[in-house]
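Hi,

Apologies if this is the wrong queue. I'm a grad student, and the batch job for Autophagy-related protein from Aquilegia coerulea produced an output file that my downstream script rejects. I'm not sure whether the problem is my script or the file. Here is the sequence I used:
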Amino acid sequence: VIVEKAEKSDIPNIDKKNTFFYSYNKFYRYLVPADLTVGQFVYVIRKRIKLSAEKAIFIFVDNVLPATGAIMSAIYDEKKDEDGFLYVTYSGENTFGGQNLP
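Support response: The file is valid. Your script probably expects a header line. Output copied below for reference.
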């Protein structure tokens, strides 16, 4: 799986230290177990970018948000690129909106 941060996203980049991700230009490659769910994959990415609790993260495949319970191998089989990789984009949003409370 090739993982890339969305251009306009304000969440951090993936932590390159002590990670399973390998830099390839601005992409990160990750070998995903066949039975991993999208929700579990999001959890792994969330840990790698050290995202704060008030931020939500979303992943997109072909600009579509896959179901949390979907199996990554099924998404790979359906959406992989002709080069053999599945391209995933991640982005984030404030969980509680963009306002700071007093």
